[in-house]
């Protein structure tokens, strides 16, 4: 039994060691003079990195020794709903108790609210570790994003009142967006927010559905504040504190993530506070909140994939057929190698994304505080924004689709026993399935990334990576990857010239190409200093470059026949 | 009403990790080959003390006697919320048996001053004697409650404790101050706090400074580090015999009446087994055989 999910994971530690957060920490910690006021604030960058490592070690220990051993039990019992009340499984309660005792709740918040002022990159590592232990728990832990959003957009009075409660781990949060008739199309939300002109107070009325951890004390609710409006511009974001006007009508009976209660909520004239400005609810605040959540779900998918891979590898090492452990059979080794390559690729991608998201937030903070002395700040902020907006949907798409492929193969490695509930891989297979659905489906991630993909937003990064020095041993790989990169650019330019429906039809191929190109360069870069990573890059590219070429050909041909045939074929 | 507690903890070799390589030809243990850990039941004792403080207020002071490396279990105690930690370390303590150990601990406790409760683990996994707690209580002249499973009530200068045995439990009432030895099933020790892990990561005794300076080069010198730690209450208190009012003949090896005569390897192996029918006749036959073999009766 492993004792620490951070210390037993060399790749996670490698990523953590590699990532450069110096500028981010400098801005976030305001040059680090705050150590005297807040004993947990770092004294300098190395100290900050050391602190982050300690946090991950503490969490890794709890994940391995307290949470994971009871994960099957948490799944089996699941969250319960009785008489309008939602309760967590006993194992979930014990896990939350340990996380609270370890003072790991609310760690994202700035020190002044009792947090540890953590960058998103570290938070992503935490979410991965939690999810590897128990994926359902992540939705409760992961909703710390709610506090981060209040910190970013709430007014000072609201922050002072609400955030210390998050910092002490007293309250949990929920993000309340979806309605029965507003899923991917959030612009059509019906829940009404009415302003009482006499008192200046808002009240919410309406029904929300599929709300993760919907019984949470603090909820951020997207509602229609502009009467007569019918699109996204009539929506505002509100904060409510759960009281008797908030009725939980039911919780869903889901395929996986059983420990996480998914609620249907009815608001009956519920007192609410406006966050930020009216009409900016969806376009500005929810968008920001969802981007954070998308990074978290990507990390969740990587954590589940890691757990599934380890189950498969251990099983394949112990299970003997034809006189040897099955992992030695090429057909099984192929599956294991594919899983390992994809997991490490996804981890490289999420750290690259996290770095740009962190930089963007830091530059925004520096700009808002007006303390910046860097003359290039505006330019850097713009670049970080473009890359963060580009890479977030890319990693959400890749990590969650990857997680599904990994869990599928992990079950396949197990053969018949993997289909049985006694084996953990069966749970992972169910838990992973929602990751490419919730917080925006894979198809929506493609929509979010497509404009920038065709607009060559990745070019500066790709050019920079291609221009690095690569050792002679990996030169042939570099050449092949460069060819693939050129095909990706050519495909993007070609797709751009097609008509709208055809673009949308072949967009998935372009997205797949983008993931191979970006992951390929990230892994090859690691291979410059780490021989094992050079081999891993080879493993990854040997599998994925041919697929990139196939996708490229499909885009260049842009055959319109399949799309045109949808009436005759589908309706038949 | 708040309560001041003292917790006695010990750093022990992780005997769960004993392998062939760990045992020497003489049958003693090569301690360096085993990881040093917080004695498991001492964590339960610490947890019980922390819960008393969480519910009633007061302080938790953790005391450990051992080599300088034992500073590690004191840091572990700080990570979990101890208010004060003291390392009792001196070559003169070395080689102590339970008699000399409890003498030294009792002297250190008297120096700490007034207390309401002393908590110890039931026993340590290296010696397994379960004697240090009771002997310390005797030397302090306070009542002891061994095998404590939970504190049922704590009020008006009295504590009611549930004791655990193989066959049942017992409730005992006791006046404060007193000493409790705590079982492994008493509670689930809390994990270290991530925040305290950061806050106390530099907590150290001077012999650990070189290692700290290697990692945290910004301090430059041992003097600068020492000053920083002192200012930030991060110096772990270290007591030697000089800090205590002790009779040196009662310390360490000299003060230890226990002598290890010989160590035997005991290999438990069962070469044969027999099935006993689960019927009154089968059980009667078994009992008769046990009486005949003088095993019972």
Poorly predicted spans of chain A: none
Helix and strand sequence of chain B: EEEHEHEHEHEEEEHHHEH
* CATH fold node name of chain B: Rossmann fold
Task: Name the largest protein-protein interface in this structure.
Answer: A-B, 24 and 16 residues
Strand order of the largest sheet of chain B: 9-8-7-10-6-1-4-5-11
Overall pLDDT level of chain A: 94
CATH superfamily of chain B: HUPs
For this structure, the quaternary state is: heterodimer
- At the fourth level of CATH, the homologous superfamily of the domain at 173-280 in chain A is Butyryl-CoA Dehydrogenase, subunit A, domain 2
The strand count of chain A comes to 11
User: What is Rg of chain B?
Assistant: 23 Å
Largest sheet of chain B: 9 strands, mixed
Briefly note the structural class of the backbone of chain B.
Answer: alpha/beta
- Provide the low-confidence segments of chain B as ranges: none
- Assigned CATH architecture of the domain at 173-280 in chain A: Beta Barrel
**CATH architectural name of chain B:** 3-Layer(aba) Sandwich
Give the integer mean of the pLDDT values of chain B: 90
Distance between the termini of chain B: 53 Å
Please give a structural write-up:
The complex is a heterodimer of chains A (572) and B (297). Chain A is α+β, with helices and mostly antiparallel strands. Among the domains of chain A are: 173-280, Butyryl-CoA Dehydrogenase, subunit A, domain 2, CATH 2.40.110; 458-565, Up-down Bundle (Butyryl-CoA Dehydrogenase, subunit A, domain 3). Helices cover 58% and strands 11% of the residues of chain A. Chain A has 20 helices and eleven strands. Chain A has helices at residues 10-18, 22-28, 45-67, 71-77, 90-101, 120-133, 135-141, 145-153, 156-167, 281-318, 330-369, 377-414, 424-432, 442-454, 459-466, 475-496, 500-527, 531-557, 561-564, 566-570; strands at 80-82, 85-87, 173-176, 192-196, 201-212, 218-224, 235-241, 246-251, 262-274, 320-321, 324-325. In chain A, a hairpin with a 4-residue loop joins strand 4 and strand 5. With 297 residues, chain B is an alpha/beta fold. Chain B has a single domain, classed as HUPs (Rossmann fold, 3-Layer(aba) Sandwich), CATH 3.40.50.620. Helix content of chain B is 29%, strand content 23%. Chain B contains eight helices and eleven strands. Chain B has helices spanning 40-56, 71-80, 98-112, 132-140, 194-199, 209-215, 222-231, 280-292, and strands spanning 3-9, 11-13, 36-38, 58-65, 84-88, 117-121, 144-155, 158-165, 168-175, 178-182, 237-239. In chain B, the strands form two sheets. Chain B has a nine-stranded mixed β-sheet, with helices on both faces. In chain B, a hairpin with a 2-residue loop joins strand 7 (144-155) and strand 8 (158-165).
């Amino acid at each position: 039994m492993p004792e620490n999910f951070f210390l037993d994971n060399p790749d996670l530690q490698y990523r953590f060691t590699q990532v450069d957060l110096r500028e981010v920490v400098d801005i976030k910690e305001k040059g680090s003079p705050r150590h005297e006021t807040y004993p947990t604030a770092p004294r300098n960058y190395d100290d900050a990195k050391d602190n982050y490592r300690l946090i991950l070690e503490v969490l890794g220990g709890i994940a391995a020794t307290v949470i994971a051993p009871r994960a099957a039990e948490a799944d089996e019992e699941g969250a319960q709903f009785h008489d309008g009340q939602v309760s967590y499984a006993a194992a979930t309660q014990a896990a939350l108790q340990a996380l609270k005792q370890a003072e790991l709740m609310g760690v994202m918040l700035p020190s002044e609210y009792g947090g540890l002022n953590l960058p998103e990159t570290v938070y992503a590592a935490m979410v991965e570790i939690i999810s590897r232990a128990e994926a359902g728990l992540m939705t409760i832990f992961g909703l710390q994003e709610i506090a981060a959003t209040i910190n970013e957009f709430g007014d000072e009075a609201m922050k002072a009142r609400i955030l210390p409660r998050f910092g002490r781990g007293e309250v949990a949060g929920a993000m309340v967006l979806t309605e029965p008739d507003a899923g991917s199309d959030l612009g059509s939300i019906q829940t009404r927010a009415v302003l009482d002109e006499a008192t200046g107070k808002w009240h919410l009325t309406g029904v929300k559905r599929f709300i993760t951890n919907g019984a949470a004390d603090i909820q951020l609710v997207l509602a229609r504040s502009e009467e007569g409006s019918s699109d996204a511009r009539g929506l505002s974001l509100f904060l409510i504190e759960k009281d008797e006007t908030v009725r939980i009508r039911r919780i869903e009976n889901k395929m996986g993530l059983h420990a996480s209660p998914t609620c249907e909520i009815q608001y009956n004239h519920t007192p609410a506070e406006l966050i930020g400005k009216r009409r900016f609810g969806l376009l500005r605040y929810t968008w920001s909140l969802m981007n954070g959540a998308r990074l978290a779900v990507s990390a969740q998918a990587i954590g589940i994939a890691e757990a599934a891979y380890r189950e498969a590898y251990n099983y394949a090492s112990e299970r003997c057929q034809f006189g040897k452990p099955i992992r030695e059979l090429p057909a099984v080794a192929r599956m294991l190698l594919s899983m390992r390559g994809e997991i490490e690729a996804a981890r490289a991608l999420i750290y690259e994304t996290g770095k740009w998201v962190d930089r963007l937030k830091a530059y925004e903070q520096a700009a808002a505080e007006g303390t910046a002395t860097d003359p290039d700040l505006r330019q850097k902020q713009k670049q970080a924004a473009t890359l963060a907006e580009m890479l977030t949907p890319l990693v959400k798409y890749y990590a969650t689709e990857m997680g599904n492929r990994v869990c599928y193969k992990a079950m396949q490695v197990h053969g018949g026993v993997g289909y049985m509930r006694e084996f953990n891989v069966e749970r992972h297979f169910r838990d992973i399935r929602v990751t490419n659905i919730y917080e925006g489906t894979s198809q929506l991630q493609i929509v979010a990334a497509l404009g920038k993909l065709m607009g060559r937003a990745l070019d500066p990064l790709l050019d920079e990576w291609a221009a690095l020095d690569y050792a002679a041993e990996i030169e042939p790989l570099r050449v092949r990857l460069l060819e693939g990169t050129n095909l990706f650019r050519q495909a993007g330019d070609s797709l751009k010239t097609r008509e709208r429906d055809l673009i949308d039809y072949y967009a998935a191929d372009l997205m797949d190409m983008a993931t191979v190109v970006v992951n390929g360069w990230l892994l090859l870069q690691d291979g410059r200093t780490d021989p094992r990573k050079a081999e891993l890059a080879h493993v990854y590219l040997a599998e994925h470059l041919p697929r990139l070429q196939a996708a490229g050909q499909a885009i260049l041909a842009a055959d319109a026949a399949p799309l045109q045939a949808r009436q005759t074929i589908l309706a038949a | 009403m708040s309560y001041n507690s003292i917790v006695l903890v010990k750093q022990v070799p992780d005997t769960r990790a004993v392998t062939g390589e760990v045992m020497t030809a003489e049958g003693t243990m090569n301690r360096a080959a085993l990881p040093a850990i917080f004695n498991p039941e001492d964590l339960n004792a610490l947890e019980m003390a922390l819960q008393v403080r969480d519910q009633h207020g007061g302080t938790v002071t953790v005391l450990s006697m051992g080599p300088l490396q034992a500073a590690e279990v004191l840091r572990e105690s700080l990570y979990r919320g101890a208010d004060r930690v003291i390392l009792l370390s001196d070559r003169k303590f070395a080689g102590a048996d339970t008699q000399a150990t409890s003498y030294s601990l009792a002297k250190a406790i008297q120096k700490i001053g007034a207390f309401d409760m002393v908590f110890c683990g039931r026993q340590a996994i290296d010696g397994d004697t379960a004697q240090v707690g009771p002997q310390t209580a005797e030397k302090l002249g306070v009542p002891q409650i061994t095998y404590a499973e939970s504190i049922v009530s704590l009020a008006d200068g009295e504590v009611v404790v549930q004791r655990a045995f193989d066959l049942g439990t017992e409730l005992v009432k006791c006046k404060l101050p007193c000493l409790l030895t705590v079982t492994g099933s008493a509670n689930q020790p809390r994990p270290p706090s991530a925040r305290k892990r950061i806050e106390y990561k530099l907590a150290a005794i001077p012999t650990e400074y070189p290692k700290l300076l290697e990692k945290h080069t910004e301090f430059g010198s041992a003097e600068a580090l020492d000053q920083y730690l002192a200012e930030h209450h991060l110096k772990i208190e270290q007591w030697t015999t000089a800090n205590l009012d002790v009779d040196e003949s009662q310390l360490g090896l000299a003060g230890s009446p226990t002598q290890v005569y010989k160590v035997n390897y005991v290999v438990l192996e069962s070469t044969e087994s027999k099935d006993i029918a689960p019927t009154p006749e089968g059980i009667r036959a078994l009992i008769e055989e046990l009486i005949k073999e003088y095993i019972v009766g």
